[in-house]
Design goal:
Blueprint: H1 11-43, H2 47-73, H3 83-88, H4 90-100, H5 108-140, H6 144-177, H7 181-206, H8 221-231, H9 233-248, H10 251-272, H11 281-290, H12 293-323, H13 329-355, H14 357-373, H15 383-419, H16 424-452, H17 463-474, H18 476-489, H19 496-510
Helix pairs in contact: 1-5, 1-6, 1-7, 1-12, 2-5, 2-9, 2-16, 4-5, 4-7, 5-15, 5-16, 6-7, 6-13, 6-15, 9-10, 12-15, 12-16, 12-17, 12-18, 13-14, 13-15, 14-15, 14-18, 15-16, 15-19, 16-17
Length: about 500
Amino acid sequence: MISAISEKLKLKEKIGYAMGDAAANLVWRGALAYLTIFYTDTFGLTAASAALLLLLVRLSDGVTDIIMGMVADRTNSRWGKFRPWVLWSAPLLGLFMALTFTTPDLSYSGKLVWAYLTYILLTLAYTANNVPYSALMGVITPSTTERTSLSGFRFAGAFLGGILVMGFTPDLVKILGRGNDATGYQYTMYVFAVLLVIMMVITYTSTKERVKPQQSSTKSLKEELVDLSKNMPAILIPLIAMTLFFHFRNLLTGAIFVLVIVGTYILLKRFIHKPKDKLSHSQMDMVDLLTNKPWLILLAVGFLFMMFNAVKYGVIPYYFKYYLHNELLTGKYFIALLIISVIAALLTGPLSKKFGKRNLFMASLVLGAVFSAVFFWLPPSNLTLIFIFGCAAEFFAAIMPTLFFAMLGDSADYSEWKNGRRATGLIFSAGTFINKTGGGFAGALVLVVLGIYGYNGQDASTVAAAIPAMKLLMSWIPAVFALLGLAFMAFYPLTQQKTQEIEKELAQQRHP
C-alpha cells in the first residue's frame, strides 16, 4: 500500500493501465465515429430509426452503469474489486463489437431487431468492462497529482487506440471487404477484437489496487439491488422525458419534460432532507452524490463536453465523404486528430499543475469552442486550414476527458472527506454513464439534424440539401455545447489548494 502521498507510480504501471483504454477505444471510438454512417449507408437503416436506436440503448445504460458501479464496489476477491472485471469482460466485448458491425441478410424489420440486440449487448459488455476500469484509477493511488498523471496516460492510450480504429478502419474495410463494405466492416472488427483482448490482459497483469475503502454496508448485493430498483425511477423518468422531447421535438413532449424535471427536483429536495437513520444504504449513496457539489457540476460538464466532442466525431465521416468528396481522407484526418490528442493528454498533468484543473478545463472549453466555430467559414478546397483548425480544436477537446476522470477521483475524495463514505465505483459509473449518454445523444443529434435537412443515406439526391447541416454540426452546434459547459465549470468549487488540503487530511485518516 502507498504510505506517502508523494510516492510516484512506476511508468510500467501507467502504461499498463493506459492499454486498457486503448482497448476500450477500439470499441468506443469505432462505434462513435463509424456506427452512425455504418447504420445508414451500409446496414440500410433510416436516419430516424438509427437516431431512435442510439437514444433508447443509452437509456439502458442509465440502469446498467449504476448497477455495475454498485456490483464493482461490492466485489471482494483476491484479485481486487475492479481488476477482475477488466479481464472477465474483455472476450465478450470483442465478440459483440464484431457482431454489431455484422450485416445479416434479413428484412428491414429483422435488421432493426439485429441492430438493437447487438448494440444493447455491446453496451452491456462495455459497461461491465469500462465502469470497473474507470473506477480502478481511483484506487491505484491516493495521490490527486498521480491520478492526474495516470489519467493523462490513460487518455494517451485511449487516443492511440482511437488512431488504430478511426485512422485505419476505412482502408481496412476496403482491403478486407474487396468492394463489399458489409464484409469489410465485419472482418475489420475481428482484427480489432483480438487486439482488444490482448491489451486488456496487459492492463490486468500490470496494475495494482492500493486504496482500500472501508465497507460501509453489511447488506447482500441482492438486497442492495432491490433497494436500488425502488429509487431508479428518479433517474430513469427524467431521461425518458428527455429522450421523448429530443426525438419528437414538439410542444407536448417539451411540456412533459419541464414538468418531470421540476417534479423530480422537488422530490429529490425532500429526499435529501430526510433523517439519515430513515434512509437505506443505496438511498444514502444517492444523497451523498446529490449533495456532492463538485460531482454534480462534473456530471453536467461531462455531458456537455461529450456532446461537444461526439457531435464533431459523428459528423466527420459525412463531412469528408459529401462536403470534401474525399472519403478515404477521413482516416488520415482522424489520425492527425488523435496524434494531437495523445500529446494533449500527456501534457494535461504538467499543465494542470501550473494552472490548476478548474482553470485549465475552462480555458479548454473556450478555445475548443472558438476553433470549432471557425469551421463554418472554411471552404472545402482548403484542406490545410481544415486540418490546422481541426487539430487546434482537438488539442483542447482531448484535455477535457483527461481532466474529467481525474476530477471524478477528486470528487470521490471529497465525498469521503465530507461524509466518511466513498463509493468509488458508483461515482465513476455515473461519470462513464453521463459520457455514454452524451455520446448517444450526440450521435442521435447528428442524425436528427441531417434528417431535418432531408438526408437519406440510400438516396444520393438528398445529399446536396444536407451540406449546410454538416457544416453546422462541425462548427456552431458543438461550440454551443462547449460554452454551456464553461458556464457550469465556473461554479466548480475544488480549487488546486482545496484538493491538496483534502488529500492530506484523508492521508492522515487512513494512516494515523
